[in-house]
């Protein structure tokens, strides 16, 4: 036993004297810390490749091909079109390019109005819900119902409500309140844009309400109490305290709402069907019609790539602008 103890003591002394033992341990620990996040992210990266990046690459390849209904079975044998599909899409003097440009402007207007109204309603409701009162929990639950409902079920319900002869909207506006001379059409014609906007805001503003309400929890109440003692009113507190403190939250919220709204396909497709009215011809449904109605997948893929490039440019410019403004504020 004495010999064994002496050997163990000698080994410990040798390890302590070895100058490379500690760096090797630190190096292995550092590699383990660096490798663990990548290992945990590997399933998400794999799913991202399979679900998003691989179809995206295939779509880019298809955009350079003359893929029509004659080559659906063997799409890789479709003739190479080069940039012809892109030239056709951006030729605004031709019918295809003109229709795409009108759809783009309609989508921009729809996105600005929908995102603005969603943000405004979400901020107003979240600020109102900050004060404790009886029934606040119930109202919070009710406000989140549109966000919790499945999109298809909610939009189908709105499509029934917008029916001209037996819909609830015309029953209230025309029959009960008498605000219109005749029962208007909501799912066709110019009013279709209003119907689409109403449905989009109705199902989108609870998300803004949820995010803003979470952001308000990080603002200390002592600041509001001090501002009230200094004579600041409610609007001054909102403008001087609430909105500046919510700037990081609003930056992310507006970007997410913009991307969701600009790419929204489910709402117009379920509300109007395969052929949306011209007044509500969003670019997502327009690309679908260009691909699956005319069976010209090459042109539809080119439009999708152009839309992707536009969103990348806008997102990059927005992130650069907001980060620059944040740095200027920090200074």
From TrEMBL:
Residues 1-26 are annotated as: Disordered. The keyword Protease does not apply. The chain crosses the membrane at residues 34-64, 104-129, 141-161, 193-216, 245-262, 301-321. Gene3D superfamilies: MetI-like (1.10.3720.10). It is found in: Cell membrane. It is a multi-pass membrane protein. Keywords: Cell membrane, Membrane, Transmembrane, Transmembrane helix, Transport. Residues 104-318 form the ABC transmembrane type-1 domain. It comes from the Bacteria. The keyword Transcription does not apply. InterPro entries: ABC_transporter_permease, MetI-like, MetI-like_sf. Belongs to the binding-protein-dependent transport system permease family. This is ABC transporter permease.
